[in-house]
# Entry
Amino acid sequence: MKRSRKESVETIFASIDHEVFLITTHFRGKDAGQIATWVMPATLVPEPTRIVVILSPYNFTCQLIEKSKKFVLHLLAANQHRLMPRFGLPSSRDVNKFKGIKITRTKSGLPIIPGTCGWAECKVLANLDSGDRKIILAEVIQQKTNPTKQPLTKNAAFSKVSQKDFVALVHKRINDGLRDRKLMKKFV
# Structure
């Protein structure tokens, strides 16, 4: 498979190179985490900061966020591309994705990944079910930044992961899209 970030269907979004985020959560003794690129500020008001994240309802992380009503949003640093397959391929339902990582925790017990550009602990304010995605509006309750780090972007991450991981990530995206199409049809 060729290393290309072209969308399967050309759209105006094909040339966007999103930053790569890692979302972590904790509920009833279980940690979960996943990669996310659909993250954006949701207000111009500096306090309180609000964000929107868009997640698959099939992801265990999303399911735990719905129960716990909280999560940590990490902006991955340029050298953290190895976290893409680790947190983007297996499910936290089946695998301890945090094994071997020296995490710390927020006061409320959420896992914090070291070495990122920064993190923000968030509480869920509302969510919208769009069929194939959960659109979550959250408020930042505490955050820490590391201005010495540069963010990892989607294209840079895909260019740095191994060929095996690249193929697996692309195939997962395609398969998830095929699966999710059924959810969209139910929603319309």
Observations:
- The first helix runs from residue 60 to 68.
- The radius of gyration is 16 Å.
- Confidence is low (pLDDT under 50) at residues 2-7.
